[in-house]
Design goal:
Length: 591
Amino acid sequence: MESKNMNLKRTALIKGDLKFTNFGQIVKSTLFRKLIKTFIDELTVKKSHLLKVLEPFNNEQGEFNETAFIDFVYLLNINPLDEIMQSGYFEIRFSHQEYAQLFLGFLEGLYNYWRSIQRFMIKTDAYNPDEKTKRSKAYSLASNNDAFKKMVLDLYRNIHFNVTGKSFSIYRQLPSGAQVAFLTDKFEFDRGVKSKNDSLYQVPYVWEAIFEPPVIFYTQSSKRDGIFPVKDKRMLQKFYLDCEEWFAIPVKVGRLLAIVYVHKEFLALGAGLFNLFEMATPEEFTTKKPDAVVFFGLDEVLFEEDEKLGFVVKEDDVYYGLLPDTAQVDCFGYMKKMMLTLHNIIQIEKQDMPVHGAFAKIRVGGKKSTNIMLIGDSGAGKSETLEAINKLPKELACDFDILIDDMGSLHFNKEGDLMAVGTEIGAFVRLDDLQPGYAYSTMDRSIFMNPNIINARVIVPQMAYEEISKSTRVDYVFYINNYEEISETAPPIEMYDDLDEAYAVFSEGKRMAKGTTGEVGITTTYFANPFGAVQFKEEHEKIAKNTFKRMRETGVQVGMIRTQLGIPGYEQDGPFLAAQALIAFIDQLNK
């Protein structure tokens, strides 16, 4: 499974079918050889003094003898450095002390470089629907990764000891194996399911994933910008997916089936999908035509100037989202929003109203739940307001179940009730906007994206698919206002008597951009939804106006919540005050 064109500057693919039992499996592997090469390239760019370590392995022409150096590393795993130097097998013209210091720096740098790479273990294993067999295969893969992790740690420690002659005083079991392991297989598809691009069915499909927390990925970008244009052209037969370079990840976006094809360099974004969406089973994706398909990491030459951040096409009744292999789109926001854009376009076709919002069942004092829909753009404070409920005094006896964290759809059932359906089983939120310590309390199941910079994100699984995918009654709909400060004339919660006035507020989609996208300051986005609603504004407007009309007729109340999240100094207090007001509002309804 090691690619011939493997680029270890970002991603390493580790063979998962090996039971690692000896150090030669690592040191003599193609993977280790490429690791050495790319690390040396890094040192060369930096003009590092550690390059002196390689001088004994350069020939008379100054060319580096990679094989000899790897043999030297292998011997260092077994023998002390001074014995190797005394043997004269390698012409190391340094004193023992000088070379030991140099090599120790090289070793630490190489080890840290390895741990900075996105590491995935891939095992091709025949899918079997039997639950016991599936569990056994997953255990076997986890065991292989444990053995690999131990081997890497032991190799590092053995070499460290043989260079310094000293053992560690403190042993740190640092994550050194694969961060994520995948079980993959190639499947036979029903004829009516397949598209005209045969290469889509030759790539390995992921049917099981194993995470080694804490999972931390560093991507080349941390902000999403723009919207995805919808183009009327045919793209499916303009590219070929190399089965050594691409992976297919089948997921369910709410009630829709989606297949995401990810180039290996973007596997970190693909891994994030497992915390955000329900995984589809082979029984589902081999027999049902997908509603949506995403390609992440296609050759940039396929994209026109206005398509450089991705675009959407429709072919043979399936919507396709295409994203290029560029640093700018190496951000999970592009992956998530492309999938949700496709979801929303499909909902508009079905005459349902897609909403960019959060939806929760909230209970106060053990009373019946009140179902609240919060609508607003990125950074408005939807998730933050709900999470802030956890900070309220326990004596208020309030709790909630989130059914929609970011995107869902509204429709009316046969009885005329307004109903909501979600899309995601997890949340993709800014670390800065969460209550202190929350992300760390879920570290064992979260995926962290760029935790060291502004707009750091975490993907947390938090909802059951059965709950988010069923229709749930909506009692109240609120617009989330993050730009107005609370005052006597601007209370935390304000209800609308005039539905036309409410429609105008929702339709304008005003917010204070917080830097979660490329926008800054006060911005407006049609219905706070740049994912499908903007691209199909005319069709969406008909659905939205009809929805608001029927909400008036059926008694669904509409209002605004001011979170103050976009106002400096209110990043924590704003959502807390909004949560406090929302709980008081619901409590009053129960009296």
